[in-house]
Automatic annotation (TrEMBL):
It is found in: Cell membrane. It comes from the Bacteria. The keyword DNA-binding does not apply. It holds the Pfam family AA_permease_2. It is a multi-pass membrane protein. Keywords: Cell membrane, Membrane, Transmembrane, Transmembrane helix. GO terms for molecular function: transmembrane transporter activity. The chain crosses the membrane at residues 7-29, 35-56, 77-95, 115-139, 151-170, 190-211, 223-246, 319-339, 345-369, 381-401, 413-433. This is APC family permease.
Amino acid sequence: MAANKKLGMGSVVATGVGLIVATSCLLSLGQGASAIGTTFIISMVIACVINILFALSVSELNSLMPNITGGLPQYTLASMGPFVTIVIMVGGYLACNTMVSSAECAMFGNTIQSVFPQAGIPASVYCVILVAILIAINLNGVDIFAKVQDFVAYALIISLLILGVLGTIKVGTGTPISQPAVLSSKFSDITGLCGLAFFLFIGCEYVIPIGDKIDNPRRKIPVGMIISLLLVLTFQIFMCIGFSHYTPWAALGKSTTPHVLYGTLLLGPVGTYWMAVVSILAVVSSVNTVISSLAYIAAGMAKIGLLPEIFNKTNKKGAPVAGILLFGGIILVINAVGLSTSSSLSFLILCGCAFWMLSYIVTHINVLIFRKRLPNAPRKFKVPGGPIIPVLGAIGMAWMFWNISSDPAERALIYIVCLIMVAVLSVYAVLWIKKVMHRPLFKAFPVEEVMAMDNDLYAVYHDPKTGRLRANISRGGVTPVAERDA
């Protein structure tokens, strides 16, 4: 009986908050707050509302295609076909996660260096050593952080909430400073930072894979994701106000570890080591999870024919070798180059956010397509208001994409990076779909086929690339090769 016990709302919210929050979010929070002061809270509220609209759309997709493990790529495969899926959802989504994880890893090196500056070791060295160890651990099929993953994430969240409240009510052991809380109230400055604020709320869709373990998912998935986003917004507002009371804006903007800086100025050495220990554990745990999860996502996409079969190959320990080496290797190389400044880290995060926004826009469009194509299909949850919320959500995401950076030069460079990635992925997608999959570029897969692909038996009875029955399979079962040839 206990084995079948379903998760309640508390577990859903805890999971959602734990998956949204990362130490790299604190860099974006510090960058935004130092740019315009506490009016960055308005940017955060706008970004949070737009992400809530996304949470509603992805909840409807989950109710239409429940219990699938691939999430956003599978919805798109059944909606727009393999080309958009590969370019935006597979290639782009994997790429943006890799970028963001590289920034997260850099936070590890920067945090250690800020706590032990006397060692004289470059932050990139710590990062490279960490990634190399995590690659080796994952290749051995061992996830030593799985049992402490939730504890570490929640410790970070509770720590930030406590520090935020202490700073807001000015009861820290440090000395409050006198500085203007608002640096700019211009609408253009506030909206120009919405792209940066978006990063503070990404990841609520990671709740979807546990949908089959939730009691009354029709209600608890959308409501749980919304509560998670609002809780994250709440403690970030406290942190932003706390920054204004204890951290000089200029120092906050230059810091690559704003949470450690704030903890130090708020509580002295206790705050330094408190935030350092919690954030280091959180980074190690999250980067380890990303290397592993991206490798398994790539394996899943290879299983349904969207990526080369090599990504589905495992070693004797059951680890997907190609994915672990590829994603871990990219993170290692990016950090070996050296992400030593807050501006370089912020740029990497914004590049990842840009592709994340594109995948969210496609998700809203998926809802509209399925509403048109499958109007009578059963949905345990349907976004109220007809097409209004998906349309507003897509427009909001597109607007944030346009305002990805308040610096025109940086914004143009981010667009160039995105165009290059789209061009490379488009070439791969066309060649792969035409030469290997032999499928139309934009013809959607049937929903039932996409859902069937999640079952291991699909690969036994079908060619995962073409979707056709294998040559030695008949409708009645397996046909012996000799009999078939006769």
